[in-house]
Amino acid sequence: MKENSPVAALLERWQREATELTNRYSQPALAGLTSQHIRELEDALQQEADELLNLTQAAAVCGYTADSLGRMIREERLENHGKRNAPLVRKADLPRKPHLREVLNTPTVPLTREQIALAVVNRA
Protein backbone atom coordinates (compact mmCIF):
# COMPACT_ATOMS: atom_id res chain seq x y z
CA MET A 1 0.00 0.00 0.00
CA LYS A 2 1.22 3.47 -0.79
CA GLU A 3 2.66 5.17 2.25
CA ASN A 4 0.89 8.46 1.53
CA SER A 5 -2.51 6.92 0.80
CA PRO A 6 -5.55 7.84 2.90
CA VAL A 7 -5.85 4.22 4.04
CA ALA A 8 -2.20 4.14 5.19
CA ALA A 9 -2.75 7.37 7.12
CA LEU A 10 -5.87 5.94 8.74
CA LEU A 11 -4.09 2.76 9.78
CA GLU A 12 -1.25 4.79 11.24
CA ARG A 13 -3.71 6.93 13.22
CA TRP A 14 -5.47 3.82 14.54
CA GLN A 15 -2.14 2.36 15.64
CA ARG A 16 -1.33 5.56 17.55
CA GLU A 17 -4.75 5.40 19.19
CA ALA A 18 -4.16 1.76 20.16
CA THR A 19 -0.89 2.75 21.81
CA GLU A 20 -2.66 5.60 23.58
CA LEU A 21 -5.34 3.20 24.86
CA THR A 22 -2.62 1.27 26.68
CA ASN A 23 -0.31 4.07 27.76
CA ARG A 24 -2.76 6.79 28.64
CA TYR A 25 -6.00 5.02 29.50
CA SER A 26 -4.70 1.66 30.78
CA GLN A 27 -6.89 -0.28 28.36
CA PRO A 28 -4.61 -2.99 26.96
CA ALA A 29 -7.55 -5.22 25.99
CA LEU A 30 -9.05 -2.49 23.80
CA ALA A 31 -5.63 -1.70 22.38
CA GLY A 32 -5.15 -5.37 21.53
CA LEU A 33 -8.51 -5.52 19.79
CA THR A 34 -7.73 -2.37 17.83
CA SER A 35 -4.34 -3.78 16.81
CA GLN A 36 -5.98 -7.03 15.73
CA HIS A 37 -8.44 -5.11 13.55
CA ILE A 38 -5.56 -3.14 12.02
CA ARG A 39 -3.70 -6.36 11.18
CA GLU A 40 -6.84 -7.92 9.67
CA LEU A 41 -7.44 -4.86 7.49
CA GLU A 42 -3.80 -4.78 6.38
CA ASP A 43 -4.02 -8.49 5.48
CA ALA A 44 -7.24 -7.96 3.50
CA LEU A 45 -5.72 -5.01 1.63
CA GLN A 46 -2.63 -7.06 0.84
CA GLN A 47 -4.76 -9.95 -0.45
CA GLU A 48 -6.63 -7.53 -2.69
CA ALA A 49 -3.36 -6.04 -3.97
CA ASP A 50 -1.97 -9.53 -4.67
CA GLU A 51 -5.10 -10.61 -6.59
CA LEU A 52 -4.23 -11.89 -10.04
CA LEU A 53 -6.38 -10.66 -12.92
CA ASN A 54 -6.61 -11.67 -16.55
CA LEU A 55 -6.11 -8.88 -19.07
CA THR A 56 -9.84 -8.20 -19.52
CA GLN A 57 -10.36 -7.84 -15.77
CA ALA A 58 -7.21 -5.75 -15.44
CA ALA A 59 -8.32 -3.43 -18.24
CA ALA A 60 -11.59 -2.76 -16.41
CA VAL A 61 -9.65 -1.80 -13.28
CA CYS A 62 -6.91 0.40 -14.71
CA GLY A 63 -8.33 2.09 -17.80
CA TYR A 64 -5.85 0.66 -20.30
CA THR A 65 -7.05 -1.78 -22.94
CA ALA A 66 -6.29 -5.48 -22.69
CA ASP A 67 -4.12 -5.11 -25.83
CA SER A 68 -2.09 -2.32 -24.20
CA LEU A 69 -1.58 -4.40 -21.07
CA GLY A 70 -0.50 -7.35 -23.23
CA ARG A 71 2.03 -5.08 -24.96
CA MET A 72 3.35 -3.93 -21.57
CA ILE A 73 3.85 -7.58 -20.61
CA ARG A 74 5.68 -8.35 -23.87
CA GLU A 75 7.87 -5.28 -23.36
CA GLU A 76 8.49 -6.47 -19.75
CA ARG A 77 7.09 -3.25 -18.29
CA LEU A 78 4.47 -5.34 -16.49
CA GLU A 79 5.18 -8.72 -14.92
CA ASN A 80 3.25 -11.75 -16.16
CA HIS A 81 2.21 -13.98 -13.26
CA GLY A 82 0.44 -16.41 -15.57
CA LYS A 83 1.44 -18.28 -18.68
CA ARG A 84 2.67 -16.87 -21.97
CA ASN A 85 -0.68 -17.28 -23.74
CA ALA A 86 -2.77 -16.78 -20.61
CA PRO A 87 -1.22 -13.80 -18.84
CA LEU A 88 -2.20 -12.73 -15.34
CA VAL A 89 -1.19 -9.47 -13.73
CA ARG A 90 -1.06 -8.51 -10.07
CA LYS A 91 -3.71 -5.89 -9.25
CA ALA A 92 -1.28 -3.71 -7.29
CA ASP A 93 1.14 -3.64 -10.25
CA LEU A 94 -1.37 -2.22 -12.71
CA PRO A 95 -0.60 1.18 -14.18
CA ARG A 96 -3.33 3.80 -14.01
CA LYS A 97 -4.27 6.04 -16.88
CA PRO A 98 -3.22 9.58 -15.84
CA HIS A 99 -6.73 11.00 -16.25
CA LEU A 100 -8.21 8.14 -14.18
CA ARG A 101 -5.85 8.39 -11.21
CA GLU A 102 -7.80 11.19 -9.56
CA VAL A 103 -11.16 9.64 -10.40
CA LEU A 104 -10.18 6.21 -9.05
CA ASN A 105 -8.77 7.67 -5.83
CA THR A 106 -11.75 9.92 -5.13
CA PRO A 107 -14.60 8.45 -3.10
CA THR A 108 -17.82 8.42 -5.07
CA VAL A 109 -20.85 10.25 -3.79
CA PRO A 110 -24.21 9.20 -5.18
CA LEU A 111 -25.71 11.84 -7.43
CA THR A 112 -29.23 13.11 -7.06
CA ARG A 113 -31.65 12.90 -9.98
CA GLU A 114 -31.29 16.64 -10.45
CA GLN A 115 -27.50 16.42 -10.69
CA ILE A 116 -27.74 13.61 -13.23
CA ALA A 117 -30.26 15.59 -15.32
CA LEU A 118 -28.06 18.70 -15.24
CA ALA A 119 -25.02 16.66 -16.26
CA VAL A 120 -26.90 15.23 -19.26
CA VAL A 121 -28.32 18.60 -20.31
CA ASN A 122 -24.98 20.41 -19.93
CA ARG A 123 -22.91 17.71 -21.59
CA ALA A 124 -20.68 19.18 -24.26
Instruction: State the helix count.
Output: 6
**Distance N to C terminus:** 37 Å
What order do the SSEs take from the amino end to the carboxyl end, as H and E?
HHEHHEHH
The proportion of strand residues reads under 5%
How many domains in all?
A: 2
Radius of gyration in whole Å, from Cα? 20 Å
- Counted beta strands: 2
Shape assignment: flat
The percent range for helix content is 55-70%
SS-based class = mainly alpha
Low-confidence runs:
none
Q: Largest beta sheet: what is the strand line-up? A: 1-2
Largest sheet: 2 strands, antiparallel
The whole-number mean of residue pLDDT values reads 87
Task: Describe the structure in your own words.
This protein has 124 residues and is mainly α. Helix content is 60%, strand content 3%. It has helices at 6-23, 28-50, 55-62, 66-74, 98-105, 113-121, and strands at 52-53, 89-90. The mean pLDDT is 87.
Using brief descriptors, characterize the structure shown.
6 helices; 124 residues; flat; mainly alpha; 60% helix
Layout of helices and strands, plus pairs?
Layout: H1 6-23, H2 28-50, E1 52-53, H3 55-62, H4 66-74, E2 89-90, H5 98-105, H6 113-121
Antiparallel strand pairs: 1-2
Helix pairs in contact: 1-2, 3-4
Task: Describe the structure in brief.
The chain is mainly alpha-helical and 124 residues long.
